[in-house]
Amino acid sequence: MEQQEFKFDLFDVVRIGIRWKKYLLGFAFSAALITGLYFVLQPNFYRAYGAFFPSSAVISGRINLFRAENQDWIDMFGGENEVDRAYIIANSSNVISYLIGKYEIQKHYKIDSTQKNAAQKTYKRFMKNFSVTRSGFKHLEVNFTDEDSKLASDVVNEAMNRVDLQIRELYIHINTQLSLAIDTRKDSISKELAVYTDSLVNLRVKYNMYELVAPSRKNLISSTAHGSGLAYAQGLEEVQNVEEMKDKLAMDRAKYSSLSSEFKTAKFDGFPMIHVTQWAVPFGAKAGPFRTLNVLTAFFAAFFVGLLMAIIIDIFSTHKAKMI
After folding, report:
1. For the chain, first and last CA: distance in Å?
2. Is 211 exposed, middle or buried (0-12, 13-18, 19+ CB in 10 A)?
3. Residues 34-71: tens digit of each pLDDT
């Protein structure tokens, strides 16, 4: 018996679709109805959005505040390095854990605190809804999605404030430690200076020598040393040596004192560490569910799945009939 070649084209698909249209439409409408009922019961979610530029680290630095010469123009906005730092800090546990604790996210998500790994579950779910991303314009964008639009905006705004605070505290801590180190050295110099001062006073009284004879003060000498003899010469040399050391220590102490004051000035907490370009507001853009789109998607998906099943059944039935 001659075997016929199997043929199947678009006309066959249309033919099968027309034959099974009642079942296909019924299946599609049922899927759409179930999908619609499901999403009607789901609450709306809203996305809060905020954006900021990191501030330049140089503009509030000691090198800029106490420059000796006119400096080139400095941008108030930070570069790639500042963006990298802000991005790392914004995604750190210092910010994320703070937000979770401040807004009682675990309670908000109705996660039982007695559950095993409750904190990890809260953190994981929070991070699915919270994000800090870098743009191509050297600024950072903060997003948070939640059914409570007010909470979403509060989280975004507090996240930006927290980043600003964390960066500021880092710089304040560094400048505090630097000024502390300088003050420690200054105090050590003051102790040495007191010893040299006492020695110099005793030498001047011992040799009856009260002129300014330090070599470093050669331009300030107001009188000429007078005297002769071995004892006087020896006293002159001792006074010069001690006075020279004392003067250098005094100048070093003044330098360290000035330098410490510069670092302490850089500790001022009024410098902005970020420049917010957009604060989040309540009732932001809807993040879902998009009910109409989901219902239409379910309808057409169910229709095509049903059509595929009808085609398979038709082909199977046709081949079975030919084999009998």
Report:
1. 13
2. middle
3. 888 877 777 788 999 999 999 987 777 777 677 767 66
